[in-house]
Amino acid sequence: MKKKVLLLMLVCCVFMGQVKMNIVRGESTITERKFIVLLMTNMKFCKEEDSVSSIVNEAVKKKIIKKTEKGCLSNSLTKERAAVYLNRMDVKMNGPVYDKEMYKNVLELHRISDLNSMKKSSRASVIKMFCKGIMVGYHNGYYIQSRKFRGTEKVSLTEAKTYIKRLQKQNKRKKMSPDGQLIRETKLPSNAKSYPYILTAYPNSFYEKSFEYQKTKYHKKPVPLQDFASPAQVGSMTFYNGITMETVKKQYLLDWCKKVETNMKLRFNVDYRTINTTWIHQLRKTYYVFDDAQTNKSRTDDIKAYVQKAKKNKVVVKTSRVTVEPSTLYNSGLDYVRVYVRYKVVSGEGKGRDLIYCDKSDVKFMREEKWMEQCFDIALGSFNGNSYGEDFSVINNSLLHA
Known about the structure:
Number of helices: 12
Number of domains: 2
Distance between the termini: 66 Å
Shape: elongated
Helix content: 25-40%
Strand content: 5-15%
Mean pLDDT: 92
Structural class: alpha+beta
Number of strands: 11
Order of helices and strands: HHHHHHEEHEEHHHEHHEEEEEE
């Protein structure tokens, strides 16, 4: 009997909890109609005392909603639909103005991880609201450069008001990096001034690691912009004809990072049973290509020698993530960019160069039963004295632990 009473009480508690949760959900979410009213009144197209029907009609006139959408206004507002309405209002207020380069980066670099789950007709609005820092989605985890938008998630009244406030006032918006990542402005690393900005995608420990110029022993006091440059300073460095690195970065930095990413993914994904000439050629293309065949052959032969060792030593290395962060570019004689790698040495005899392809490393690569996480500073550059960055590649084969 006691068991039956306890079971009944448990069922009642679960039921009451579910009812309470549903009530809270009902109170916290709003309809599309309510959002249109908030949008039109806050943007001063209508007055709060105007009737809902007149506000909706005015929204149709202003092309904030389409006539065909009027029948859907009783639906709960989702983040995807909010982005559509906000973008239309933004166009109405400010014209069709947006950062086209950032838009391209968000799209091509997949900065919104669930973009393809949304309607094709909504995606442009979602990207524009994301780029403008009005709707920035949710954190996907550290060392992941994309964010989840959650387009089907319902919008609360508080969220709706926040979006509208950001639309109204640019100083209320979240800041985005040129390549479409969310910038954070609180709980910053101790050396935050060394960087152009700090991103939510990385913990402070990623930023607080030493730069190569901080490890270097100089014969005299090093001069900024001559002997070294932090990520915050590197844009001011100049090429031989006075062109700044900032100008060159805008054109080539993402291409350099893609080349580094390919290089590291290949080096940390090796299987002696399947490694072949395709792997060799793909890896070779990430390193600097010289004008003469003999010099190029030296690097190719070195890669081939590693492959023979890998097969002999039965090396299997796998990686689950390689993340190259463009904003970490700095100079220490050579240009460097920071890379996060999560990898595992599954099998293989020997250590160091026998396992991972490299000329020099301050990391002891060994067979482990667990996933390892490391950050490396990879050198970029060119042996062409007249280069403006168009041929920058991985310049040496060192794996320097950041």
